[in-house]
Amino acid sequence: MTDAISSMRPVLAVDRLSIAVGAKPQRRVVDEVSFSMGSGEIVGLVGESGSGKTMIGRALLRLLPPAAAVVDGHVTFDGVQLSSLNDAQMRGLRGRRIGAVFQEPMASLNPAITVGAQITEGLILHDGLTPADARRKALRMLEKVKIADPDDIFQAYPHQCSGGMRQRIMLASVLALRPALLIADEPTTALDALIRKEVMDLMAALASEIGTAVLLISHDLAMVAQYADKVVVLRGGQVVEQGPTSEILLRPQAEYTRALIGALPARHTAAAGAPPAKAALVEIENLCVDFKRRSMGFGRAARRVRAVEDATLDIRRGEVLAVVGESGSGKTTIGRALLRLCGTAAGAMRFDGADVGEFQGRALADYRGRTQMVFQDPFSSLDPRMKLGELVAEPLRRTGVSRDERRARARQVLEEVGLAGDYAERYPHELSGGQRQRVCIARAVISRPEFIVADEPVSALDVTVQHQVLGLLAQLQRTYGFSYLFISHDLGVVEQIADRVVVMYRGRILELGSRDAIYDRPQHPYTQRLLEATPRIVRREAGGFELTLSRPARIAPPAGYAFFNHGSMPGAALSQGEPVMVEIAAGHSVCCIAR
Amino acid sequence: MREGRWMTITRQPNAIAGGVLILIMLFGAILGAVHTPYDPIAVDFFHRLTPPAPEHWLGTDEWGRDVLSRLLAGAVVSVGIAGVTALIATSLGALIGATAGFLGGWFDKVVIALMDALLAFPALIMALALVAIFSSSAFTPIIALSVAYLPSVVRVVRASVLVLRRSDFVDASMVMGNSRAITLLRHILPNTVAPVIVLATSLFGWALLAESALSFLGLGTPPPASSWGGMLSDSRNYFADAPWLAVAPGLALSLSLLGVNLFGDALRDLLDPRMQKP
User: I need a surface site. Which of A192, A363, A586, B136 has the fewest CB within 10 A?
Assistant: First the structure.
């Protein structure tokens, strides 16, 4: 509470709060944490997994899991100590005075009740409104969170709404009660970049309008830097440092904060190494991939959904080509089609000049020896019943390498990815997420492939671990010179690792160009909006850090063309006509339609 | 890890009780195959229906045959048939179910249609029909019951394969250049072992009961060879005079079933992935 400069009485004061889990060897997951919040203030609670940030949020709601308990300190909300309240009084506080928004909006909304009923429930219960008044107020709130047609959504069930809409509905139902404090625990982590920006903008606007204090619990430092007034940095349950955002995130004092911010992905100006060879290793021409979506009920034919539409790109030897896009953009499907994990509907794929679609039997097995894949979820991509040594050496089994040789190579490659050779005898469940991803990488490189598809390889990892794994990927590439198809939704990560970038939306490539061209001279309005929605913290030459938001100038499409727009893009009507890729500079092309 | 699991199971009283009962049952079956106090089919008209006594621990039946010897010899037949049935139904069902789930397409559709058709007949009724068509021998109930229990195994294995097939490590195996057969054998099947083992124990229990029922109805093991169901059937006429004739095989059957069920339940809890700590 060293920084309680605000003249008003704080809405929330947390004083030496300590939380412990377990019975006999009691372990403190939150240790003497103190901070305070004034009304209308947004306070960011940042830290990596295991830092105790979620526990603090739960303690403020007095909704700790059964195994955990507050062992010391107290929480004062609006002048009242929370621990002094009985359960009934606490229930009266929750929702009405203290609202909460969690990461997964589907889990927080009751699937069996309409959206309208869920919002009005709180209003009728806490504010004593009549159903008609509650309905009017709910509709007003839905309008406020920018739901396009509130009357329809009022009648809808949660599963009929998209993820971003559900999170906005959640926000509407919480803020309709005008709580004095809102606890937002990773409120946008499950959302795509554009929707994340919308939801956060809304939350900030409502905070300043209604005067709600917002506790923003997040691992996303750049987002916190953009929205929070104050920041509390946690590590292992202890406060590392706290203070105004500009002080903490931009001029961090503590070693840990500096390391945390330093681990954020950043663009490295082109390494002095030789530029990648021009020869294309992988070529994709007019690729289309369909998914069959099974329809409900008898007799109805399966519906075809086009996941990738008319995609043309190439990947050169020794290059990292990144594919970015939100969920459902078809970026993963391209990688899966290339490795023959799913069929294609049209188009051609060539690897080193040979037609990938033609590979059968022996040739397919050989092709797979020259390509590898790293998956997003390191928990499900390792067979739980096998030891790491066997897992890592499996690609070698087919090649006729002897058992002893395989074992030796496995230990060697495990060491290469930064795990001791003894890990060969362990099972996947004994490892952390970052360690598992290292095992997956070891498995991918053991057969010295020429081409690796990396599908969101660092999305499930903490910032510092992510930094290490990205470093490992880059280092292995320098050593062995393979090419990557790097699939990611995180523009920051892509900026750090990619040589060239492809931007996809709903199965279509919208823009393709070198990393610098895409980030510095984005052409397509969608690419521009994506970049605008991605705040970045960059190191300043003068020392310290600074928050940057790119605001690219709107650019006129090339003469005779209009930018291609998908019908579902916000604020854009579906383009009529056949989309074509128009090259606007050497190696930089944009999806347009002829005018 | 393995040791850890057995530590857990040995701490559960139900599992221990079940395990002990199963061990007694197996011991009886092995003993029955190796040595019995008397010849189980030797007729002795001078000692008909003698109650339990030191020379005949469980008494004798209407033909003067030693009940204990018949019980032990019957254990070989009953436990053997149940065991072989469970083994055949499980392995065949696992193979069919895994292949159907993994390949999908028309093969899967045909298999599922066939299994649904089989499932439409109650297991015992179908076994009765098959036994009635073919001659009565030890093999007929094995085949009939295996066919009857096949669908449940196929469905369980197919369901878990359908889930496993979508997991990343199966994709990873394909990317490594493993063929579909190797992926199925190395990565998918081993991960279905837990539910299959649990199902196999239940199948064993059902088969034990069904074999006894068939024998009780005179359609199982042909006399004079003994089986628990047959002994129960024979005892009906003498129940008032010689209750031990019914009690001995009845108790053996009930306790064996109890043991198998208790152990199967404990096994299910133990192998449930949700019970495993990461």
Answer: A586
Question: Which amino acid, residue A191?
Answer: L
Q: Which strand (E) or helix (H) includes residue A89?
A: helix A87-93
Amino acid (one-letter) located at A594: A
CB contact under 8 A, A375 and B278: no
Residue of A nearest to B174 (CA): A341
CA distance A435 to chain B (A): 14
Q: How would residue A6 be classed by pLDDT, with cut points 50, 70 and 90? A: very low
Query: How many Cβ pairs within 8 Å bridge chains A and B?
Result: 63
CATH code for A280-509?
3.40.50.300
Best mutation target among A394, A406, A440, A450 (most B Cβ atoms within 10 Å) is: A394
Question: Where are chain A's structural domains?
Answer: 3-262, 280-509
Q: Do A3-262 and A280-509 fold alike per CATH? A: yes
pLDDT digits (tens, 9 = 90+) for B20-57: 888 888 888 888 777 777 777 777 777 777 777 777 77
Query: Which chain B residues contact residue A339 at CB under 8 A?
Result: 174-175
Residue of A380, A398, A427 lying closest to B169 (CB–CB): A380
CA atoms of A56 and B13, how far apart (whole Å): 41
**The two structure tokens encoding residue A142:** 């839905």
Contacts of A385 in chain B (CB under 8 A): 190-191
Q: Whole-prediction pTM value? A: 0.79
Chain B residues within 8 A of A343 when measuring between CB atoms: none
CB contact under 8 Å between A427 and B1, yes or no, is yes
pLDDT digits (tens, 9 = 90+) for A426-456: 888 888 888 889 999 999 989 889 999 999 8
Where residue A44 falls among pLDDT bands split at 50, 70, 90? very high
Q: Encode pLDDT of A371-424 as tens digits.
A: 999 988 888 888 888 888 989 998 888 777 888 899 999 999 999 888 888 888
Which of chain B's residues have a Cβ under 8 Å away from the Cβ of A373?
171-172, 175
- B68 versus B275: the higher-pLDDT residue is B68
**H-helix or E-strand containing A133?**
helix A131-144
Nearest CA to B4 out of A430, A210, A342 is that of: A430
How many C-beta atoms lie closer than 10 Å to residue A190's C-beta? Answer: 19
Class of domain A3-262: alpha beta
ipTM of the complex: 0.73
pLDDT at position A277: 58
Amino acid identity of residue B136, one-letter, is S
> Which of A365, A384, A443 is the closest to B177 by Cβ?
A365
The answer to whether the Cβ–Cβ distance between B172 and A427 falls below 8 Å is no
pLDDT mean across residues, chain B:
81
Classify residue B184 by its DSSP letter.
I
